[in-house]
Amino acid sequence: AGGRSLLLSFVPQYGTCQEHADCDQRQVDFFKRSYLSEGFQGQFCATGGMCDICSFCQQDSADAVDGTCPQDECPGSGGYPLCVDAEPLLEDVSCQDTHDFSIYKFHPEGTEEIPDLVPEEGEKVRYLTPKNRLVGPIAVTMLRRQRGDCGSVLNPYVRSFSEGECLLGGLDGDPYGWDPAFAGTSSIYNGKLLPERFYREIERVGYFSNGTHNVSGSAPFGFFPHQYDAATGERKEERLISEADVDLFKLYFDGRCTRSHAERLLSYMREGGGVTQETTQVKFEMATYNAELDVFMYLAYTFDWSDGGGVKWDYEARFVYVDLYQRMDPGGVRFALELAVCVLLGLNILDELHDMYRAHKKYVFHEYLSQTGNYWDCLHFGVMAAGWYQWYMFWVHCNEFTMQPSYPVLSSVSSEARVFRTDAGQEHAYLAFLRDLRGLSIEFASYNALCGVSVLLFCARFLKAVDFQPRLGLVTRTISKAAGDLATFLIIVGIVMTGYASVGCLLFGHQFEAMSDVPQALVTLVWILLTMDPALFHEQMEHAAPPWAFHLYLWTFFVLGYFLLLNIFLSIMVDAYFEVKGQADARAGGKSIPEEVRDLLSHEYRRLTARPSRFASDEKVAKVLGKHKAGMPSMSRVREAVLKTIEHREAVLLPGGIDVDRKWMWRLTQQFPDTREEVAAKQAEREAEAE
Predict the structure, then answer these.
(1) Are strands 295-305 and 658-660 parallel, antiparallel or unpaired?
(2) I need a labelling partner for 420 at 20 to 30 A (CA). Which of 286, 353, 402, 619 fits?
(3) pLDDT given for residue 78 in this prediction
């Protein structure tokens, strides 16, 4: 009957009918034995109301529409019984139903060697992407929350409706789910398996901790917490427990799995109730190794179920080099540069400590503390020292790093039930490997972050160092000039942005997560202000509030925040810049930076080559001025006293017959003095003018 149905499925039917005469008798019947010699033709009306060739009218009542195969259109058809006894076909066939089997056909009797009848399961080499090989299994971690009463619900009717429905803060570490291998509706159900072979009584639904139990016919639990040892039925040894994974449910897709095994594991996870309403997070973790680059990568994908029902997902990808200098610096150049930087850092720290000591000895330590640049220096030295310490610890941990050739975490990948049962020792080893690898990657990322902060502090110190030069110090002087106005402006901006963030939280926070609280709303408003990207906010905010409220909020924020406040900020900075720029031009005396560099180089050349009797260097003039400080503790006070002294005088007479007026005194105190010859020439010009 099965073969006949198969043939019918491949043979076309030729029109509808109500009786045999309705069918086309010219249709060729290819299945008739006489077709080749006579070219047999003919059709009959089948029980389905469709015409068919005569060869398929075999059982009159089952095949023909009127219960009789037509002999005039289909001679010789019909007459077959509904059932045919096949016993006569087996009379001359003898099949042995038992066979003798001896293990010693494969293994000599009397020896202690155990025969290897089943090939040992080995880990297969798998690649996540080309050249990035998976190390160990893929770990799946599921986090579940306990259910309880909703304490925040006050309405008695709603509280009665929602009783026991709220997810609480505590983790739920009780076994749950079921093993689908024993569920008749599962695709991996196996009716030949007995639960007693795989599970204890305490591991089945219906067992109670008070000793009473009724597990007859009950399904086994499918998922057990990390700290549960399936081998002993008790808590694992403390040395095999990862404290960060207590009360979490961990599953592993072993590297030894074939495709069919992996599909079975997925079916187990899906049909056994692995993800339920109590599940609030599912995390996938894996590690890869690239042999060409000698680099490991830790990769994790996390899915979080929010209280509102949405699913957030995020990923973490970290890479790390374990063999630092062998692969990254085979020539030793990097190590030499690092050593030189460490030495220079030490010298800088000693120099700064020396400055502190000198300030303390001269009783001007308060002046040292009053200079903001010194704090930048100390902060920079601290960040650099922390970076090098982080690098040293990273190097130590890399040298201590170990791993196994493979991690067979599952007890057996071919088990027909309890497929996620683990080997506690191998599981602990793999989790330790993942923890060490992630820890190394975090240390490497921290070192890179400290290096980045150090470079930024280098830039800040450079800006501080060039502040003495009017043109090079435009950035720092502009910020200093605008500091007062900026402080007032930031207060106004803070009030306006906080107000709009609070209103946005009220209008859109119930539906738009980026506005769910004031801090997030502040960040969202800043992004809106900087990017003006409607995809960030328009669709979500438009559906969360009435149209008039949405447009009123949006356009007033644009006018006030973008067109007004942003332009006020730019105006403050531009005004401060132009004022500082004008002062810099006046102080520089019209000289550009290349001209000042030329004068500096010329001065140094003459200082080294000219005779001391014919050329007075800037240092010598400064030394002469220093002797006339009259006990004043700083150059700023020297400058103030000198300017006050020459307030009603045309010039100051220095030893050697040199007159210094107000202009040249200012230039000397700003460390841009003229040479001795230039001062003498200026003096001669003034005398000539006086005559």
Answers:
(1) unpaired
(2) 402
(3) 85
